[in-house]
Structures are given as structure tokens and as C-alpha cells.
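Notebook B, p. 112. Complex prediction, attempt 2.
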Amino acid sequence: MSQSENPNVTQQPISLWDMSAPVTPKALPLEGNVTTDVAIIGGGFTGASTALHLAEMGVQCLILEAEKIGFGGSGRNCGMVNPGIWLPPQEVRSVLGEQAANRFLDVMGKAPDTVFSLIDRFKIDCEATRNGTIHAAHSPSGFKELTARAAEWQRRGRNVQLLDAQQTEAKIGTSNFYGGLLDPKAGTVNPMGYARGLATAAIKAGAIIHSETRALKLTPVDGKWLVETNRGTVTANKVIIGGNAYNDNLWPGLKQTFTSIHFYQVATKPLGRIADKILPEAQSVWDTGLVMQSIRKDQFGRLIIGSMGKLAGKNDRGSKYWAQKRIDKIFPFLGKVEFESTWHGKIAMTPDHLPRIHHLAPGLYTAVGYNGRGITTGTVCGQAMAQLLTGTPEEDIMLPITGLKKDHAAFVREPLYEACFKAWRYYKSI
Ligand SMILES: Cc1cc2nc3c(=O)[nH]c(=O)nc-3n(C[C@H](O)[C@H](O)[C@H](O)COP(=O)(O)OP(=O)(O)OC[C@H]3O[C@@H](n4cnc5c(N)ncnc54)[C@H](O)[C@@H]3O)c2cc1C
């Protein structure tokens, strides 16, 4: 059955990126019962990076993806390739301890290099630009926070630049911000293009990808893993779960380790020359607001703005209304714009805002909880799990390897946050 005929998979495009990214080589659903060395569940950045790095080391592996490559956060995000940390770097030390924090921050600090060198090496067609990203201060206290972040990154040898309000205005094209933190080594991609490119590179290196194949049950059998799916079975020596915010109930308790929040985006039609003043150097922007907002353009001159929460209103009218209001405030010279695309996706937030690599059982690992910073984090966690499975000791991995710890308040937080995002959007739209 081809994807267009299968009623159990999502037919419509999941985001603008789904339509504008180059098409990936066809991955066929699993048929029958197969064996492999490593089965990887989930075909986002984490799964594709694990597969690529394993396949490059000559390890036989296959990806089982319930829908299609990039279906989760990887094909829906803002495309900001930044060093992967929600938590200010100075606070990482108090959570992880000095030694583990240094190891983690070193890997994350170099993670944009890792991503862009994969893009270069595999010639991944994903609208990649590397002119930095800007963390913009939405308030004077936001600027104070950025000043502390800048000092810590500079102390760690990263060449980040603190911009004053005028410099920020010149870069973004609005006087709406109190300053900004420019990370010149960061950049922007079409995230679906990057996910498809990583998957393509993995296939070329020898990995197999089965789309439309949902893992339903994981059972240890004679020192191996039996993965039962809706299409057939896989017997594997080792398993990686890369489902992240899109995890279902495959592994008990995993979904309860993080709070799932939504982030939505609204894209205009290509705006032409009038938008030349906006982000003339093609950086992407997110702000310091508690309800964070994002701004970027794509290669075709569409303006894409977003914020936390689900899409709202019939035909997403509420979100488009919010987007027009926001444009009126920050880029009033655009006037009334036409919107082309709206979408949202889920983000896995951990209680301490740090990602996790969990050892779930012998030969079974997962990485989860990237707190909205998954392009870099998914790439390096995938690489780290490939190293774990090929003999690198746990103490040499970028993050401490832990067991599951349930976040008991997550089920309360999810609806509460969503209600707050809704109220905030309403307040900003009136
Ligand atoms: C709107 C939005 C904006 C964001 N902006 C940014 C940004 O600008 N920069 C950034 O770095 N990060 C951003 N993020 C976060 C980033 O997208 C995620 O952290 C990242 O995509 C996670 O990648 P992943 O591969 O771990 O998981 P995902 O990409 O979510 O992939 C998980 C996959 O697992 C599959 N799956 C789940 N269960 C099963 C099963 N049982 N069997 C088979 N398959 C299964 C799902 O179908 C899915 O395709 C954003 C996220 C969202 C939603």
C-alpha cells in the first residue's frame, strides 16, 4: 500500500517545510520479519543521526518511523541551529556538577559546527545560512539575562556578541527589542530539508529506513529485542528510541518524564522587496519573553513568526489574527499581509531544562527532552548513542547516562501551560 492510500498515516503536509524541502528518497514500510544489529525507533534528527553514525562505523541498522521522516518536531521547527541549551550555561554547572557540565557545554558549544559540517559533507540541500542567530531582549530584564549569558559563553571561548538596541534594530529591522545576543557560529536551516538530508546520508551509508511502520511492543527475548510493529517484526541486538515529544506508550513511563508543550508558526506568502529590511543578513530570532516568540524568513522571502501554544481558531484564524497584530507592531511597514501556511508541533520540556540520555534496559537507550533546541541536540545525541552502542564508555559520553525519572507534575503542567499561552495570545491580540 503506498502512503497516499494508507488511511493510518497523515496525508496532508505537516508544515511549510514539508512542502519546500527537497523530497527524500522513498522509504518503504517494513514487510515481514527481519533481523538487524540496531533497530532505531523514530525518524527525526535523533534517529537519523544515530543511523548515520552507526552506518558509517559499519553497523547494520534500520529506522522504524511511524509516519514519514521528519514527521515529529524535526519537520516542524523554526530551523534555528544554535548551541542547544535552554538553561543559561552558568546554571548548567549547578545541575550537572563542574566536570559533567564542562563536557556537555563543550559538545554543545561546538554542536552548530557539527551540524554545518554534516550539511557540507553530505551536500544537504536545506536552505542553510550561517550568519548567526539572535536572542533578542524583549525587556530591560531580558537584556540583563543576555548580558550574563554572553559573559559565560565568552568565558568559555565562544565569540558571541552582545548587541545594543540600535545594533539589534539594524540586524532585525525593528526597534522593538532592547538589545540582543548574536551567536555568529549559529545559523538557520529548513529543518525538514536537514532531516531528509541526514536520512538520505544514512541510507547511502548503508542504513535502512521503513516509514509508515509503528513500533508497538518491545520485548527482550534471549538477549535480543523483539520489536513488534503494525507491519511485521524486527529482531535486533540493540534498540534506540528516538520518539522524543512524539513518544507514544511504547516504553512504560518514558512519556511521563517530560512536559509536552506546543509551539505554532505562521508563514506569510513570499513578500518580495518590501521585506528586504527584515533580517537583511538572514539570521533567525527568538526572544527572552516567558512566552517565547520567534521570527525568521525563508529563502523565498516568506516571513515566519511563531510562539508557544497550539494553533487557534477555525482554519487557524486566531493564530493568523495574532500574527497580523504582531507584524503591525514589529514590522508596521508591511501593512496587511497574506498568510500561506500555519502549523504547530510538540516540544519535550524537562524539569531542569536539560536533555537526557537514558539507559532503559540492557542494549536499550533513548535521548529525550531537548527543550526546543533539537537540531544540534538531536544530531549530537544521535552521535553519542551511536558511540555508546559501539563501545565508548558511558563516562566519556556528552551527558551523564541516567535511568528514567518521572515528572509527576507534567500532566498538570501541560493543560495549565496551554491555558496560559491561550490567555497570553488573546491579551496580545486585543
Ligand atoms: C514548532 C517547533 C519549533 C522548534 N524550533 C526549534 C528550533 O528553531 N531549533 C531547534 O534546534 N529545535 C527546535 N525545536 C525542537 C526540535 O524540533 C526537536 O527537539 C527535534 O526535532 C527532536 O528531534 P527528534 O528526532 O528527537 O524527535 P522528532 O523529530 O519529534 O521525531 C520523533 C519521531 O518518532 C516517531 N515515533 C514516535 N513513536 C514511534 C513509534 N512507536 N514507532 C515508530 N516511530 C515513532 C514520530 O513519528 C516522529 O517522527 C522546535 C520544535 C517545534 C515543535
